[in-house]
Amino acid sequence: MAAPKRALAFRVAPVTVERLRHRARETGETQTALVERYLEEGLRTDGHPLIYFREGAAGRRPAVVGTRLDVWQVIDTIRQDDGSVEQAAGYLGIPVEKVRACIRYYADYQEEIDAWAERAKSISEREEANWRRQQELLA
User: Fold this and answer.
1) Which residue, of 68, 105, 123, 126, is most buried by count of CB atoms within 10 Å of its CB?
2) Helix (H, G, I), strand (E, B) or coil at 67
């Protein structure tokens, strides 16, 4: 069960408030939800500067700066390479430091990353099964 939320009051520039309202209308999210997301992602980015958050069909997720690789994909690759950071970096074509950044992020948010990886794998398996059914119909 999630902890109850606490109220937080602060003042921001009128132009910021207007941009927030506009963004909330665009996304269909509440202003409160957007502010909470921006604060959380900003704080995480401060602590993990080589990680950013990107939007996709399956939702927002942490990824490696300068790539389209999700953190969970890097962690999965490390596991497949028997924990070798250097091998994973070589296979993915990214610097070792970015692989280590994913490990640091994973250490702080392991449960979240593991849950995201499970969802991503389930979606992938479902889509592959759907594709195979379509191919059988065309054969």
Assistant:
1) 105
2) coil
